[in-house]
Amino acid sequence: xxxxxxDPQALSIQEGENATMNCSYKTSINxxxxxxxxxxxxxxxxxxxxxxxxxxxxxxxxxxxxxxKKSSSLLITASRAADTxxxxxATDAFSGGYNKLIFGAxxxxxxxx
Amino acid sequence: NAGVTQTPKFRVLKxxxxxxxxCAQDMNHEYMYWYRQDPGMGLRLIHYSVGEGTTxxxxxxxxxxxxxxxxxxxxxxLESAAPSQTxxxxxxxxKGQGGEKLxxxxxxxxxVL
Lengths: 113, 113
Description:
Chain A is mainly beta. Chain A is 0% helix and 62% strand. In chain A, strands 2, 4, 5, 9, 10 and 11 form a six-stranded mixed beta sheet that branches. In chain A, a hairpin with a 2-residue loop joins strand 6 and strand 7 (61-66). Chain B has no helices and eleven strands. The A-B interface holds A 2, 9, 30-31, 33, 35, 40-45, 48, 88, 90, 92-93, 96, 98-106 and B 4, 33, 35, 40-45, 48, 50, 56-59, 90, 92, 97-99, 101-107.
């Protein structure tokens, strides 16, 4: 079963608008990560937020984490056509003696010029 | 800087055939992972390795075997391919356990007819 689930599944906006994607998870975490995947490519790490952090910024990206609600959001400000991609949240899950990353199903973002 | 390299990029198999996917990383990472990505299901962990000579099962290990004879290489084998194994396969590596950011290869598109 998926640890993280993104919402919405798909998002379509105009260039210059902000895009917000949400992630909910089920069990306690040490940290949460967001990744981006361009069509036909591998995933690229965007940002990591630890469980004791509430907000983190990186360029046009803003990530929030609410551990009481077991949810996170990724905000992309002033979106560009080049931001068109799928975005995945990933949470760490401890089992079998090791900590592993479990990914959600992703949000497909389309930014139209 | 090559990062994580996967070969081959595309492969078509007939049911019952076998093949090996090769992953190589040049970052001296201890941890390596094999994920599969299916539409609407995000990435699911097949097997992982926490160091040279070690392997462990992930979420969906059935039908796959792995080996990590050298630190920089992680091989994924399909002994008898089935149509249900049609997917995109991604290799990833990390410096430490899940919780550390992952570096991904560009993927292998596998079709089993």
